[in-house]
Amino acid sequence: MSWVKVICILCPRGCHLRVNPETYFVTGNQCPDGPEYAKKELQRPVRTVTATVTVNGGRFSRLPVKTEYPVNKDLIPDIMAALKNVVVSPPLNVGDVVVADIAGSGVNIVATRKLK
Ligand code: SF4
Questions:
Q1: Which domains occur in the chain, in start order?
Q2: Is 26's C-beta closer than 6 angstroms to any atom of ligand 1?
Q3: Which of 34, 50, 59, 101 has its CA 20 to 30 A from that of 28?
Q4: pLDDT tens per residue across span 69-84
């Protein structure tokens, strides 16, 4: 059995965890949240995807966006590919849905900046 190395990204400490993939026993954590993070990272790693999309008109040429919820890491390439073709127009508010169900992920892409 070989241990799996995982860097915890829950806080700025960035603990270097070592995880037993069979028992999920964890070492290297400096708080109780580390083991649960490590288990999730091995079983179903998820991330909040951030990007920018093209703006048609208005003051800014790009709009920062993100997934409404963390998504399975496997979906990130499809989401990024789909975002390349997205063009939005003002007005938009923070939290407005820019793309619904991006790449069939079941997750919406939302604006993270107001666009006038
Ligand atoms: S294990 Fe705890 S202290 Fe270490 S990075 Fe994760 S949340 Fe922060």
A1: 4-43 (no CATH), 50-111 (3.10.530.10)
A2: no
A3: 50
A4: 999 999 999 999 999 9
Mutate to test the pocket of ligand 1, among 29, 37, 39, 41 (most ligand atoms within 8 A of CB): 29
Q: In this structure, are residues 98 and 112 in contact, taking their beta carbons and an 8 Å threshold?
A: no
Q: Which of 34, 41, 99, 51 is nearest to 72 (CA)?
A: 41
- Are residues 74 and 68 in contact, defined by beta-carbon separation less than 8 angstroms? no
Closest atom of ligand 1 relative to the 9 alpha carbon: 5
